[in-house]
Structures are given as structure tokens and as C-alpha cells.
Backbone:
């Protein structure tokens, strides 16, 4: 069992929240690469994970030396449990190979396995590079439910710059949105800074 499962069993009336990690830093500091590493660390060896899944998920993440992340992107891991409340890794009521990947964007919810074509079309729509350097507040949420992942959420934001950028679809500022998120309970900040070979020696 995971720690949250044990706590819920011991203290059923306590409202326990999984951590929500906000990845912050300057543009091209490595935030998105870290998100990609965390995502694939947990699912790349899963028995149901396929190369097609990996290629589609990678299309949602842009990396480079300029402003490439144009909207908040959240990866939400949900630890799969059986109806009895036991982890699928220790329960015989469900197989250990549970893997459900879904995508949520502007009210649309699509699942990879049951709506593969819609899943693919939505990713193709989101992976088209926007004109100029526009930013968008509308968030993409990738939810991955499996027996071998913890309950935790990571949110990747566009990189911070000296001038406070605004979102094209809402007019709100990027720094304003981040400050709002920072004030919310259960959010944890991870500040990412680029390193050089000299830093590692």
C-alpha cells in the first residue's frame, strides 16, 4: 500500500491530498525535460506501455532554447487500487497491468485505449506550434493511472522572463497565475535552473 492509502485506512475522516508540484524557472532552464524524465521513469517499463503511447505523449512537450512551452501542462499520476482498497500490486482481484492514459483539454476528456483516434487528433491539435510567441492559459492535463505510480501531480509552466508575459486567450499575466497557484494549499514549488559542465565538475 502507498502511504496515503495507509493514512486513509487509519484516519478515514482526514482529508489527505496528494502533492501538487509546480515546476518553475526561466525559459529553457530544463523544466520540461524534467517532466518528461519523471513521466517516462514510471511508465516506460510498464507491460502495457507501447512506443505509440510514448510518441504521442512526447508531442505534447516542446523543448528548445527559446519560448517553447506555450501553455501550462499537468501530468497527474494516480495509483491504481482495487475495489477492496488494496493496491493492485498486492491484490488478486485485479491484474497488475492496469494502465489508463487520458487527456483533458477545455472540457474534452479522451482516453487512449477506448478513444484512440480522438486521443491522437487532440494531441495533433495541441502539438501544432502557435503563431509568433503567444501563450495560452488553457491547461492540458495528462492523467496516468497505473499500479506502479505514486499519487502525485506535476505542472509545467511556460518559462519566466524579465517582462511579465500575458496569455492570449485570457489576458491574465503568467506571473499572476503562478502567484495564484503558489498561494493554494498543497502546492509545492520546484525551481529549475540550468546547469553547465563546470557546475557538474
Residues:
Amino acid at each position: 500500500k502507498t502511504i496515503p492509502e495507509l493514512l486513509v485506512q487509519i484516519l478515514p475522516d482526514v482529508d489527505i491530498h496528494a502533492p501538487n508540484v509546480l515546476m518553475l524557472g526561466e525559459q529553457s532552464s530544463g523544466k520540461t525535460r524534467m517532466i518528461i524524465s519523471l513521466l517516462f521513469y514510471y511508465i516506460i517499463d510498464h507491460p502495457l506501455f507501447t512506443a505509440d503511447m510514448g510518441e504521442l505523449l512526447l508531442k505534447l512537450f516542446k523543448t528548445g532554447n527559446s519560448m517553447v512551452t506555450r501553455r501550462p501542462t499537468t501530468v497527474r499520476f494516480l495509483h491504481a487500487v482495487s475495489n477492496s482498497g488494496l493496491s493492485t500490486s498486492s491484490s488478486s482481484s485485479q491484474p497488475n497491468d492496469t494502465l489508463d492514459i487520458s487527456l483533458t483539454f477545455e472540457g474534452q476528456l479522451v482516453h487512449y485505449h477506448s478513444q484512440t483516434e480522438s486521443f491522437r487528433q487532440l494531441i495533433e491539435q495541441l502539438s501544432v506550434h502557435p503563431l509568433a510567441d503567444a501563450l495560452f492559459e488553457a491547461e492540458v492535463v495528462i492523467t496516468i493511472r497505473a499500479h506502479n505510480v505514486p499519487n502525485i501531480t506535476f505542472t509545467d509552466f511556460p518559462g519566466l522572463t524579465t517582462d511579465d508575459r500575458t496569455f492570449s486567450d485570457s489576458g491574465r499575466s503568467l506571473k499572476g497565475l503562478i502567484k495564484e497557484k503558489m498561494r493554494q494549499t498543497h502546492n509545492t514549488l520546484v525551481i529549475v535552473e540550468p546547469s553547465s559542465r563546470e557546475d557538474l565538475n
Confidence is low (pLDDT under 50) at residues 83-95.
